[in-house]
Specification:
The chain is of the alpha/beta class. The protein has helices spanning 7-19, 35-47, 75-84, 95-98, 117-120, 124-139, 151-163, 193-198, 201-214, 220-231, and strands at 2-4, 24-29, 50-55, 89-91, 143-147, 169-173, 237-246, 258-268, 271-282, 286-287. The structure holds adenosine monophosphate.
């Protein structure tokens, strides 16, 4: 596996792969890799001939007071994992390599970045869209792979790529979960043993939603109420939002129909957790509920 820390190096590696006629896949990450990231790497390896994984804890997507400094950085372990799962190159630039001067240019996606996580994390999505644009320009991949776990991010990136005619395809892969339903996340390691036991309540609330939809309920307020009731079983969980929105526009819906995103965010102690499901309700077919 090739390792690049500079933009010039990764460009050389990708140019060589292209010259050999290879298609290029790209998996952007902040490291502290886990089975969720591995699922993206594997999807990329299946689909593309040459796969680049970036490992970069992007300072511009952390808000003041967030966990930028303490974000886990087990670099050698990450490298080993990428290699074991068939990545062909890692790109691990320093902050100075990525931001050699104060940026005067930002990429902003309007509207889609306002609700849900946009409310409590001002500037977060601007950091994500800007760094993804930079990484896309640097790597020059044919396909980039993102996780459904970060549903709003995936929606925003898709829209950005479409609006700006970026010459790559965005693929969104399913959320990987622990056996008890908790969505795997690099931040789960912040949880105390008790918080770790309590955290799957978020998935239980999402399951409850899927069950209600299965039984024909369509009223979003009623579903959200039932989900909040489940979430209140863990009093230490500070719920940030329970939102039932159109999966493409992220606008709230009153009645559930079409492709709908049901998203939850909350804080357990100092750890912010997010999770979601997407359901597709066709007038005639009933719902395609998640696992
Ligand atoms: P991060 O390192 O947290 O920025 O995540 C890098 C990519 O991995 C993003 O596209 C995430 O959506 C994706 N990802 C993180 N956790 C999971 C998971 N549990 N299942 C699937 N994809 C994930």
């Amino acid at each position: 596996m090739q390792r690049a820390t500079t933009i010039a190096q990764i460009r050389t590696y990708v140019a060589e792969a292209r010259a050999a006629g290879k298609s290029v896949g790209f998996v952007p990450t902040m490291g502290a890799l886990h089975v969720g990231h591995v699922s993206l790497i594997e999807a990329a390896v299946r689909r593309c001939d040459y796969v680049v994984v970036s490992i970069f804890v992007n300072p511009t997507q952390f808000c003041p007071g967030e966990d930028f400094e303490r974000y886990p950085r087990p670099f050698e372990r990450d490298v080993e994992l990428c290699e074991r799962h068939g990545a062909h190159a890692i790109f691990a630039p320093s902050p100075v390599e990525m931001y050699p001067r104060k940026s005067l240019t930002w990429v902003t996606v309007e509207k889609l970045t306002e609700p849900l996580c946009g409310r409590s994390r001002p500037g977060h999505f601007r950091g994500v869209t800007t760094v993804c644009t930079k990484l896309f320009n640097i790597v020059g991949a044919d396909v980039a792979f993102f996780g459904q776990k970060d549903a709003q991010q995936a929606t925003v990136i898709r829209r950005m790529a479409a609006d700006l005619n970026m010459p790559l395809e965005i693929v969104v892969c399913p959320t990987v979960r622990e056996p008890d339903g908790l969505a795997v996340s690099s931040r789960n390691q912040y949880l105390s043993p008790q918080e770790r036991q309590e955290a799957p309540v978020i998935y239980r609330a999402l399951r409850r939603c899927a069950e209600m939809l299965d039984s024909g309920r369509r009223n979003a307020a009623e579903i959200a109420r039932a989900m909040n009731e489940i979430l209140s079983q863990v009093p230490s969980l500070q719920v940030e939002y329970v939102s039932i929105v159109d999966a493409e526009t992220l606008e709230p819906v009153d009645q559930v129909r079409g492709r709908i995103l049901v998203a939850v965010a909350g804080r357990l102690g100092s750890t912010r957790l997010i999770d979601n499901i997407v359901v597709d309700i066709r007038a005639t077919e009933g719902i395609m509920a998640p696992r």
